[in-house]
Write a structure and sequence with these properties.
The complex is a heterodimer of chains A (about 230) and B (about 450). Chain A has about 230 residues and is α/β, with parallel strands linked by helices. Chain A has nine helices and nine strands. The chains are: A alpha/beta (about 230), B alpha+beta (about 450).
């Protein structure tokens, strides 16, 4: 489903230099597989997800999603693949405040050509327990409910891969497990591959495959090695 | 859900700002509609009078525009008077001059010859007019029954003067003698006068000394939308018999001519009329038998000592081109500036909101929206504000016109409907303004286009 090889990404510094962030030789997620990605803050987890989603273009390397080479696509092409094959759940939910729960879910469908499906949007919201809150705006929902809407929105286009960037970081402990269960159950139900970033060991311990970006990312390995010599980064 | 729905939701989210921007746009478009409507009323008013139904106005030498203003619109003061003899030269037909001399009687040279321009006016007409008196705030015109019999009005110059009540003036009637009056529609309404009522005119200006002689109203005209709606017409014969309306020095005109006394033969049993040598006129409305004759006649009349002939159509056209159109264009330019300001306000309003929207745009992009989709959303929002405001302004402008319809009709006799004031200019200008306002969304749309998704997602 997801095949990454020799992925490199660096950021331009104000002084004109380059700051390497990612150098991932190889990373794979199989169809329907659920993988959790852990790592230190600033380690490049969100950058990796953005590169996978096509929001950010890598400097080099290959990212294949469902057989499609993302790095060879134009920006518009990556947008199309993102709309059709990817779901994205954010740490801060990222719901549009002026839209109702149902409209937020339908928004996810708007940009995937030919996939506008109102019954599915309603069905998804019912599935995440918000069947009675279809027409409520985010401000009228609890944070847990807002993340449920975000999950429903991410699933709206029947994606092949769901990216979840610390989906429980802003949720009260009582609701964290419910959200994790919901995401995993939905992915199971629709055979969707899941790549979830988390800091929570309580979450990562539930997954059979846990990857630490520090061990995948050569930049971090080098930085750690350099730091161990006592020289500045 | 489509892009239009998203744009609509964005507008709703910024409800007050969107409404105020839309209101600003509607104000601009409404102003344009009002100015165009006023322009239409002015144009319509002049067009209705541009085909006055005659080729020439013959009057005293002086300003040609003043003569036309005075004669067609009853504005300003008459330049001077001309002798009645000038009218005799213009009466149509080989016997016209002699018959008029026999009808009026008095001292005149060469009473048996035909009028010098009688050939040119044969098949047309010459209608005498005297101005100088007022009835309330309205001008009084001394004229003959020919005024309503032979003159036509309207854009095509084919509409007869109809009477809402009563009849035309008679040269002499058994019951009222020479003292009959016909009122324009607005005069009758304003002065609350009906057929059978009487009126007295004042000399020289509305507050001038009143003439003792009473005229009986025998007819009230249907509204025409011409200056005649605002005029009172009295029998010229009666006008001459009012005090101070006779020429003080009887032989002032052409004193060297050898004049003879001619007794009145036609209507000799009627009361005395003012004799020819004591009569003056303010203007003569002349229609040539053939239009081509008018050109020659104008040239020949202008060579004469006392008179000039002007083309009313040319003078009205000059008036419109010189005075009216520049004001219309200036007003129009001003309102277009207002609309440009409205368009800029749309730009500022949406642009100022872009900082708040970067996150929303980034979310949409993360959900798969292409750059052109977010650009379209911003442009659609701009389009909705401009079209919504524009339509509101267009509707309000025309509705205001309709609301003022009765007042306008009372003043200039032109009915304003919701749709009849729509001009071709409006069909071009209003959509143009809306396009301009929509284009104002390009700048914020460009900001949307350049929004960095990864930087704004987490903010």
């Amino acid at each position: 489903m997801l095949n990454i090889t020799e992925l490199k990404k660096s950021f331009k510094l104000p002084d004109g230099g380059q700051l390497p962030v990612l150098e991932v030789p190889s990373f794979h997620v199989a169809q329907g597989e659920q993988v959790v990605l852990i790592g230190d803050s600033g380690g490049g987890k969100t950058t990796l997800l953005h590169c996978i989603a096509g929001i950010m273009a890598p400097d080099s390397g290959s990212i294949q999603i469902d057989g499609i080479e993302m790095t060879r696509l134009s920006e518009a092409g990556r947008d199309r693949v993102r709309a059709a094959k990817l779901g994205y759940v954010f740490q801060t939910f990222n719901l549009l405040s002026g839209f109702t729960a149902l409209e937020n879910v339908r928004l996810g469908m708007t940009f995937a050509h030919g996939r506008h499906n109102l019954p599915r949007a309603i069905e998804l919201l019912r599935k995440v327990g918000l069947g009675e809150r279809l027409h409520h705006k985010p401000s009228a929902l609890s944070v847990g409910q807002q993340q449920r809407v975000a999950v429903a929105r991410a699933l709206a286009n029947r994606p092949r891969l769901l990216l979840a960037d610390e989906p429980t970081a802003n949720i009260d402990p009582g609701n964290q497990q419910k959200i994790i269960d919901l995401i995993r159950q939905c992915c199971d139900d629709e055979d969707i591959a899941l790549l979830m970033v988390t800091h929570s060991t309580a979450v990562s311990d539930q997954f059979s495959r846990v990857e630490n970006l520090a061990s995948l990312n050569r930049v971090v390995e080098r930085a750690t090695a350099t730091t161990s010599t006592g020289e500045p980064l | 859900m489509n892009l239009l729905h998203i744009a609509w939701r964005n507008m709703q989210q910024r409800g007050l700002a969107s409404i105020l921007t839309m209101f600003s746009m509607s104000l601009g478009v409404g102003l344009v509609v009002l100015v165009l409507s006023i322009s239409w009323i002015i144009t319509e008013s002049f067009e209705r009078n541009s085909n006055v139904g005659y080729n020439l106005i013959v009057g005293s030498k002086g300003g040609s525009l003043q003569l036309a203003l005075n004669t067609v619109f009853y504005l300003s003061q008459p330049i001077e008077v001309i002798p009645y003899e000038e009218y005799l030269e213009l009466i149509p037909g080989p016997n016209g001059r002699q018959q008029e001399i026999k009808r009026v009687g008095g001292r005149i040279a060469e009473p048996d010859r035909k009028g010098k321009f009688s050939g040119n006016t044969s098949g047309g007409f010459a209608i005498p007019m005297c101005l100088g008196d007022y009835y309330g705030p309205f001008r009084v015109i001394g004229t003959s029954s020919q005024f309503f019999e032979k003159l036509r009005w309207g854009k095509m110059g084919d509409q007869e003067y109809d009477f809402a009540d009563g009849r035309n003036l008679l040269d002499h009637s058994p019951e009222h003698g020479f003292f009959e009056a016909v009122l324009g529609s607005q005069v009758a309404a304003y002065m609350n006068k009906h057929v059978g009522d009487t009126l007295n005119t004042t000399h020289g200006d509305p507050d001038g000394e009143g003439h003792g002689q009473t005229f009986t109203i025998v007819g009230i005209l249907q509204p025409t939308g011409t200056p005649n709606d605002r005029a009172a017409f009295i029998n010229l014969e009666g006008f001459y018999l009012l005090e101070n309306h006779a020429r003080a020095y009887a032989d002032l005109a052409n004193p060297d001519e050898k004049k003879v006394d001619v007794p009145r033969e036609i209507g000799a049993d009627e009361p005395p009329r003012l004799p020819l040598e004591k009569r003056d006129l303010t203007a003569i409305l002349v229609k040539a038998g053939q239009p081509v004759f008018a050109v020659n006649m104008q040239r020949d009349i202008n060579k004469r000592l006392n008179t000039q002939a002007v083309s009313p159509v040319k003078e009205i056209s000059t008036l419109v081109e010189t005075f009216i159109n520049p004001v219309r264009y200036a007003l129009l330019a001003l309102t277009v500036v207002v609309c440009v300001v409205s368009a800029i306000s749309i730009l500022v309003s949406i642009y100022n909101s872009m900082n708040e929207r970067r996150r929303d745009i980034a979310i949409m992009r993360a959900l798969g929206a292409r750059r052109d989709a977010v650009v379209s959303v911003v442009l659609l929002e701009s389009l909705m504000i401009s079209v919504g405001g524009g339509l509101l302004g267009w509707f309000a402008g025309h509705a205001l016109g309709v609301a003022c319809s009765s007042a306008v009709e009372a003043r200039v006799g032109i009915q304003i409907g919701f749709f009849n004031t729509i001009t071709p200019t409006e069909w071009m200008l209003i959509p143009g303004i809306m396009v301009l306002a929509t284009l104002a969304g390009i700048v914020p749309a460009f900001v949307a286009y350049r929004t960095n998704v990864s930087q704004n997602l987490g903010s």
